[in-house]
Every structure is written in structure tokens, then in C-alpha cells.
Amino acid sequence: MPFGSKEKAYNNSKSMAYLTAEQALADYAVLLTDLKKNLSSEGSPVVLFGGSYGGMLAAWMRLKYPHIAVGALASSAPILQFEDIVPSTIFYDLVSNDFKRESLSCFQTIKDSWKALEDQGNGQEGLLKLSKTFHLCQTIKTTRELSDWLSSAYSYLAMVDYPMPSDFLMPLPGNPIKEVCRKIDSQPDGTSILERIYAGVNIYYNYTGTFDCFDLNDDPHGMGGWDWQACTEMVMPMSYSEDGSMFPAYKFDYASYENDCISSFGVRPRPQWITTEFGGHNISLVLERFGSNIIFFNGLLDPWSGGGVLKNISESVVAIVAPLGAHHIDLRPATKADPDWLVSIRKSELDIISGWLLDYYGARRGDLLQRATPVNSAAS
């Protein structure tokens, strides 16, 4: 926090202007260089680890600062989720698939709930009833407030659909989508669609049972900084597809997106900047020729995997894919409940990184020996 506190740093667009991926990477470069100097370890190799946005930074830093780090593990890093590199519907299609995979009836209930929400929220009396059904602390003014809250829960549930309990975003049981769908499907006959939806979403927002009501203006995930970046450089077009999605059809509207950013922060997005700064188009061709020593991990239950690198690009730019993995599960703390496939993936990552270090020390040793050899010895 360069301004002393989060409150001061996030106070206005003048201070938040420093919150960019480029600035973050430059800060890391300076920090690592100074640390190595202060610790008298200039010869020590650095390996970068990051998940999600941090995974994007890890991959980009390896490309931008190859003299700073010998390699990077970029876990669940959606570096292709920009412009038209991947379909704009891919994220929410994958969220939908996660729910359909657990229960077709659960998927259909969620799909039907959006119309039920709109029908009931038509008028002040309906909005009051919705607020009571979902145990909201204040009466909502529009149904969009509630639909956004529900949509966020489904997206985050897909991200953290881990096989073991976690508290990464919220305290949750293992296989949380299975638990949400069990709640939705197991309500007594006669339970309305929206009451079923509340029972399910309550698993996400209130698994511990500590909340009496929900404040939709509260940001439990601390996403204010990401909202700023999404309105400046992290412009990721998102749409809902007409077929196969549990969300109502929606096509990304850049004009509306831009207006929201101007209203929220007084800034206009730069939708082409990230690919200009870090690349993304023709990624296989570019990284095969100019990249090295990057591991891209993706779990296919994670909706962000739709914007990730899922195939090996070269011998040293490799993709590790876990069909049952969720958001950067490889970087989650190890537990006794970890499935064998996860233990195996972590071992594979460590083996690859060990190879990078061996190559580094081998090259460094050869360089030192070469410099120590007398100049006239070449003739002997």
C-alpha cells in the first residue's frame, strides 16, 4: 500500500492509477533485486508462483523480466480471456456445466429462477417480498441487485468447487456445488423456486450460520481493486449463451460496460491494452519461439480455465490440466484429504521446477568455469 493504508490507496482515481499489472510487476522486480542484494544472494535463482490474477502476473513477469526469474508456475491464469481470443460465453458456460454435472434438476431450477425473480420483483410489494425471501438487510430497489448477488455466488462456487472444505472466498464444505444442489433439490414439495434458490445460495453466503441477514452492498471478497482494474486494463468480455447456459441470454455490450466504468470511477476502459502489453493472440506461436520455463495449471471445473493455456506449447512451456480441479487447487494448502491426482500434480510441478534449477546452476557453473579459465589456455 504505497499510500499507507487501503482506505487512502483506494480513495480516488489519482491514487488508484498506480494499481496496474505493469506497476505490480515493476514493484516485484525492484523488491526481488533489492532483497537479493541485501541478502548477498545475487546468484540465487527466483521462481515465481501465482494463482488467478497472481498467476497472470507470474506468467507475464517471466516474459517481461526473464533476468529476474528463471521460471513461473501460473496457476488458473486466464491470460487469454481478453478481446475475442476465446468465446465471451466460455466462463458462464463452464459455471453452468459444473451445476449440470451435479444435478440436472438443480441446473433447471436455477435456469427457471431468473424469470421467477423478475415476475415477483415487478412492483414495490414484490421487491419487499423478495427481500424477505432472501433475508436481505434492506429492501432492494431493483431485481438486478439480487440477480447480480446470486450470479456471483454461482460463479464463485464453480471456482472453489474443491473436494475438501475450504475458506478461500467463504467458509465452505467440500464439493460445495453438490451441497448447494442437494439443498435446492431436497426442499419439500410445494416449496417455491425462489425459496429453493435461497436454500441453496445460503450454503455459499452463510454456511457457518452466523448471518441473520445479507447486505448486498457489502463486498465480502474485497473486489474493489479488481473492479478498478476491470475498468481500466482487465477488460474481459463476458456473455451468457442462449443454449446450454443456466443464466438468461446476454451479449456483452461494451458501450454499457464503458458507461458503468465512467459512472463508478470516472475512467474509460482500454480493452486492447493487455494484449498490447503482454500478448495473447497467437499465443502458441509466440511462446514457442520466445517463451520458456512456464507451467500453466488449470482445473477444468474452474470457469477461468476457459481463458487458460490448456495445451503444451513447447518443452518448457507446459500445461498441466486436472479434469476434477478447481481454481488454483494446486497452490491450496496440502491436507490429508487431498486426492491422489492432486498429490501427483504437485509432484509433477516440483519435478519440472527442479529441472529449471538444475539447468540454472549448471549454466552458472559453466559460466564461472569459463571466466576462471586463463585466456591463453585456449591455444594449449
Automatic annotation (TrEMBL):
Stored Pfam families: Peptidase_S28 (PF05577)
GO MF term (any one): dipeptidyl-peptidase activity
One BP annotation, GO: proteolysis
Gene source species: Oryza brachyantha (malo sina)
Family: Belongs to the peptidase S28 family.
The protein, known as: Lysosomal Pro-X carboxypeptidase
Keyword Transmembrane: no
SUPFAM superfamilies recorded: alpha/beta-Hydrolases (SSF53474)
Keyword annotations: Glycoprotein, Hydrolase, Protease, Signal
InterPro entries, alphabetized: AB_hydrolase_fold, Peptidase_S28, Ser_carbopepase_S28_SKS
